[in-house]
Amino acid sequence: MAKHLSVRKRHRQSVVRRARNRAEKSNLRNAVKNFLATTADKAPDAFRETSSVVDKAASKGVIHKNKAGRIKSRLSRNLKTKP
């Protein structure tokens, strides 16, 4: 176990941040899966919601902004090809 108080604090912080980031990433993955499972008539609304979740994850630093753009681009392409 670490002896320095600052190291103990950093460990506590990292545990909390890891849990928060994991929850945010899980939320992101679920949003993308839900969008891919939607029907064509509900797809535009689902795309807006999913896009918002992706942007929030990027702004919080959970994913890189370029990855967010890549995800949104793929979702947009999927939206256009839904029958």
Task: Please give a structural write-up.
- The protein is an all-alpha fold and about 80 residues long.
- It has one domain (about 5-80): Ribosomal protein S20 (Methane Monooxygenase Hydroxylase, Chain G, domain 1, Up-down Bundle), CATH 1.20.58.110.
- Helices cover about 80% and strands about 0% of the residues.
- The protein is built from three helices and no strands.
- It has helices at about 5-35, 45-60, 65-80.
- The longest helix has about 35 residues, at about 5-35.
- It is elongated.
- The model has no long low-confidence stretch (mean pLDDT about 95).
Offer a concise description of the structure:
With 83 residues, this protein is mostly helical. It has helices spanning 5-37, 43-59, 65-81. Helix 2 (43-59) runs antiparallel to helix 3.
Layout: helices, strands, pairs:
Elements: H1 5-37, H2 43-59, H3 65-81
Helix pairs in contact: 1-2, 2-3
CATH class: Mainly Alpha
What ranges have pLDDT less than 50 throughout 5 or more consecutive residues?
none
Distance between the termini: 58 Å
CATH architecture: Up-down Bundle
For the CA atoms, what is the radius of gyration?
17 Å
Number of helical runs? 3
CATH superfamily: Ribosomal protein S20
What is the mean predicted local confidence, pLDDT? 96
What count of domains describes the coordinates? Answer: 1
Structural class by SSE content: mainly alpha
Give the overall shape: elongated
CATH fold node name = Methane Monooxygenase Hydroxylase, Chain G, domain 1
SSE topology string: HHH
Largest sheet: none
Number of strands: 0
Beta-strand proportion = under 5%
The helix content, as a percent range, equals: over 70%
